[in-house]
Write a structure and sequence with these properties.
59% of the residues lie in helices and 4% in strands. It has helices spanning 26-47, 52-68, 79-97, 105-112, 117-133, 139-142, 148-151, 168-185, and strands spanning 11-14, 17-20. Strands 1-2 form a two-stranded antiparallel sheet. Strand 1 (11-14) and strand 2 (17-20) form a beta hairpin. Helix 3 packs across helix 4.
Length: 186
């Protein structure tokens, strides 16, 4: 009788994203923060001798691209996990502007025209859904996103609102998110 033992890994890396067994994304966030804070420590001596605009460009090249890479996977993670990623963005903002660690960070992020990490994730998802519905995305991705009215035989209340298939709570959150975005644009 042949017996083979398979060792189960706690986490796996795919395309630079570390997925843990419970899909909490904590392993990915730990690695993201470790490499991001390392980059900030490496940039600190150089940023002090640059103009603010040059420092912003340099930090965006090394830190913001890490924050934005596959960040849609962070949608729905716990506040604790999101707080750790936000601390990396806050440290990058403080490095650029020279703000102290104890200063209130919201005005600093607004000065840099940066969205907080949770809002960046929501904005990216909203853009992806919009691109899928407008036909600006490859069909193998867009096929999984369709309006509720297109997928059901019965008429739903939400079919008149052109809402994507989701739970009622998610639909309300999207409506709130969209109304906040449109109010900020006016």
């Amino acid at each position: 009788m042949l017996s083979t033992s398979i060792k189960v890994a706690e986490s796996a890396r795919d395309l630079g994203v570390i997925l843990d067994a419970e899909l909490t994304m904590s392993s990915h966030v730990t690695a993201l923060c470790r490499s991001g804070f390392f980059q900030l420590r490496q940039l600190r001596p150089y940023v002090r001798s640059l103009t603010t605009e040059s420092a912003k460009t340099l930090v965006q090249a090394f830190i913001s691209c890490r924050l934005d890479y596959c960040n849609s996977l962070l949608y729905g993670v716990t506040d604790n996990v999101m707080r750790r990623v936000q601390s990396l963005q806050n440290a990058a903002a403080c490095l650029i502007t020279g703000a102290r660690r104890r200063d209130h960070i919201t005005p600093v992020l607004r000065q840099l025209h940066w969205l907080p990490v949770r809002r960046r994730v929501e904005f990216k998802l909203a853009c992806l859904v919009h691109q899928a519905l407008c036909g600006q995305m490859p069909t193998y991705l867009a096929d999984d996103i369709r309006l509720v009215s297109e997928g059901n035989r019965w008429s739903l209340r939400s079919s008149f609102d052109n809402v994507c298939g989701a739970t009622y709570a998610q639909q309300l959150r999207r409506q709130k998110l969209w109304s906040c975005r449109s109010a900020n644009l006016e």
